[in-house]
Structures are given as C-alpha cells and as structure tokens.
Amino acid sequence: MANLENRGNGSWRVTISNGYNPDGSKRRLQRTIKVDPTKTENAQRKEVEKQAAALETDYRRHLITDGKKITINALADEFMSIHGKRLAIATAAHYQYMLDGRILPEFGKKYVQDLSPRDIKQFYQKLEKTPALTKRSKTGGLSGNTILHYHRCLHAMLTYAVRSGYISINPGDAVEPPRNDRQETAFYELEDCRKLLEALDALPDTQWRLFFYMAIYTGMRPGELIGLNWQDIAGNVLTVRAGAVYVNGKGTIRTDRPKTQKSIRMIDLPPTIMTILQQHRREQAEYRLGFGGNWPEPDAVFSGALGHRLNISSPTQKFQKIVKEYGLRPITLYGLRHTAATIMIAQGLNVRDVAARLGHAQTSTTLNIYAHAFMDANTRATNAIADALENARKEAK
Q1: Helix axes 89-98, 72-82, angle to 10 degrees
Q2: Per-residue confidence at 133, pLDDT binned at 50, 70, 90?
Q3: What mean pLDDT value characterizes the chain?
Q4: How many angstroms separate the CA atoms of 198 and 190, rounded?
Q5: In what order do the strands lie in the sheet with 265-268?
Q6: Is 160 within 8 Å of 70 (Cβ atoms)?
C-alpha cells in the first residue's frame, strides 16, 4: 500500500515500498503527484490514490525503476558526454542542435521518470505548428522529415536512459514516429547536364569548376568533396575516407570518418576530371606561395581564400548563383548527386553497383531513393525484351 503525504497546494508525495535491497535497505519508489489544488483534501486524496495504485502496479511489474530521479537537462548532458562520443561528428552536432534548440526548452526541467508518451506526442504536434526557418518549406511549418529527426534524437536519449537504469521502458516506443514527408530531390536530365557543364566551362575559377564537375561525375556527397584531401587521390583513383561538418567555434572541419562504413569507397576519375584536377592543383600551389608557410590546411583539395577548408555552405551558395546566372533549371546542390545516380541507373548499372558508388550502407536505401529511376529502367528492359522477341518472330516469317 502506498504511503501518501499532502505537501500542500495540490502536491502529494507518494512512497511505495517493495521489499529490500541486497544491503538490507528498503526498496522504495518516491514520486510527486500533482492534482487540482482547488478541490477538497478528500477529493484530492481519492485522485492521488487512483494514480498511486497505477504507479504501484507498474513498479511491481518492473515497468518503472526506483533509480535516482534525473532531469532531462542532466540526462542530455550525460547522454552527449558518453554516447555522443560514439556518434559521427555531424550526427553529434545535429543532436546537440536539436537538444538546445527545442527538446530541452520543452522538457529540460522535467524528470525523465515523469515523461509520458502523451508529453512526447504533444511535443510533435507542437513542432508541426512551428514556423519553418527557411523559405524552402512548402507548408510554412516544420516538415515531417524534420520532426522525424527530433524523434530519433529524443528516442536515442531515452534508450540511453533505459540502459542506464533511470527508466525501465522508453516512452517514445509508444508514440508513432512522425511521417517522413521529404519530397524526392529534383535532378537533371542529360540536356540539363549539358547546359550545366557549358556553364561550368565558362567559370574563371578552376576550383569551382572542379567541385561541380566532381559532384556530377562522381555522385559524391557535398561534405565528402569538402573533406577531400590531396592524399586521398592516387593517380586517377580517389578514395573517400572522410566528410566535412561545421562545428561551432572551429568552422568547417574534416571528420574522422565518412557517414557510414560503406561510405569508404574508391572512385575512378575520368580524363575530363583529371585535367581540371591537375590545373587546380597547380593554381592552388602557386596561390599558396604568397602565404609562405601560413596556410592552415595544406592537404585540403578545396580551400577558402586564406587556406582554411572550404566553408560548408559555400558550394550551395555558389551553385545557386550559377543556376540563376545561366538560367538553369533550379535544383539543389544535392540534386547533382541524384543526377549522377539516375544516369548510372539509366545506363543499366544494377542496384549493388549504384549503391557502392554512392556509399549507401544498404541497397534498400538506394532502391527507396531511386525507385522512380529503377522503375523506368525496368520498363525499358521489358520493352527491350519484347522488341527483341517480336523482331525474332518477324524475321522467322
């Protein structure tokens, strides 16, 4: 039977005993239950007894623990200091951004033991009504994909809380994940590619010409290109070993590993790329002479005017400027990666080869993203077989 203590103003302390610990001390769970303070004490007690009975049942079924109570602010600090070290730099930075930006302002002072599925569901509903910070939003609010990122961050932290013994079950498990409504990224058809390459050939800056040529020819992620070092290139073979991410106080840095283990891959560079690459290396070396030894990152392939690795946002800004200046069909910089993928599929490469080129951890990722392209290729294959068989029958006659 739970012990109830009226602490005034609708606040009641509930203490539940459940046997003894190995050291002889009593196993007890203490929780604070708040009810309507305007009700009579007898009415409050009945409400508290009802909630305490449910709490006691969950406690005895080991659905909640008697571990020390910890606020979500404290849990987040512990989670990022311990689990955060196992995450990729970009992922850890993104988690911290989401925690500081919206999760902790919403839940920070709340005890993790008191966090309910209802609280989490209401948080997602609140995010749906939050105005987007960019003009790219089609609804004016946060997209389902963005809210899904918050769900993954919060769920990972609560999973850590379970493993640490603070709670027995993850309340996020009882909440349906937000719907991923990310729209398929636009890509260029071959005629668009021709116009883009002509525009790039007109650029006076060899570095930018090389960057966008490599984006469309290799299908590399923008961060992988920014993180590229000269030592990653041997002859005409490029090895993707890292990426790049922006870190507060440090700027753009090369990561210690790429997005996934499968992202480590080798890519053959065609003569077209090698010609521009060699020209860029000569020009970069000549430009560096004026700085003596004061060049912060001598191994970076793509660098800013003062020798630091290229800013993470600069390629996007430059690409949009080129698109506008040359009247090209608007797509995102990441659309060049999708363009490379769709060209490979159109040329008959199978899903494993495309996934390997793009550095996808699983072929299912490639199939999900490029379902349209594989469907088109499947239709062409069907038509090719049908045409071949019909021609054979006609020739036989």
Answers
A1: 170
A2: low
A3: 85
A4: 12
A5: 233-234, 237-240, 265-268
A6: no
CATH 1.10.443.10 positions along the chain are 190-375
Q: Supply the pLDDT for residue 296.
A: 93
SS (H, E, C) 108-161: CCCEHHHCCHHHHHHHHHHHHCCECCCCCCCCCECCHHHHHHHHHHHHHHHHHH
- The 10s digit of each residue's pLDDT in 92-108 is 888 999 999 999 999 99
- Pick the closest to residue 259 from 98, 87, 4 (CA basis): 87
Q: Which residues of 272-307 are buried (b: 16+ CB within 10 A; e: fewer)?
A: ebeebbeebeeebeeeeeeeeeebebeebbbbbeeb
Q: Which fold has domain 72-174?
A: DNA polymerase; domain 1 (1.10.150)
Give residues with Cβ within 8 angstroms of 123, minimum separation 6: 103, 106, 107, 150, 154
Phi, psi of 282 (to 5 degrees): -65, -45
Handedness of CA 289, 291, 294, 298 (dihedral sign): negative
Beta carbons within 8 Å of 49's beta carbon, 6+ residues apart? 2, 4
Residue pair 95/245 in contact (Cβ under 8 Å)? The answer is: no
Beta carbons of 2 and 15 less than 8 angstroms apart: yes
Say if residues 397 and 368 touch (Cβ distance below 8 Å). Answer: no
φ and ψ at residue 134, rounded to 5 degrees: -115, 160
The pTM of this model reads 0.67
Tell me the per-residue pLDDT of 54-70, one tens digit each, with 9 for 90 and over. Answer: 878 877 766 666 567 88
Q: Judging by DSSP bridges, how do beta strands 26-34 and 11-20 pair with one another?
A: antiparallel
CATH number among 3.40.50.970, 1.10.443.10, 1.10.8.80, 3.40.190.10, domain 190-375: 1.10.443.10
The two structure tokens encoding residue 245: 């991410």
Going along 214-287, which residue ranges are E strands?
233-234, 237-240, 244-247, 251-254, 265-268
CA 42 to centroid of chain Cα atoms: 51
- 3-class DSSP state of 270: coil
Which residues lie below 8 Å from residue 284, measured CB to CB, with a gap of 6+?
Answer: 207, 303
Which tokens hold the place of 118? 């209802």
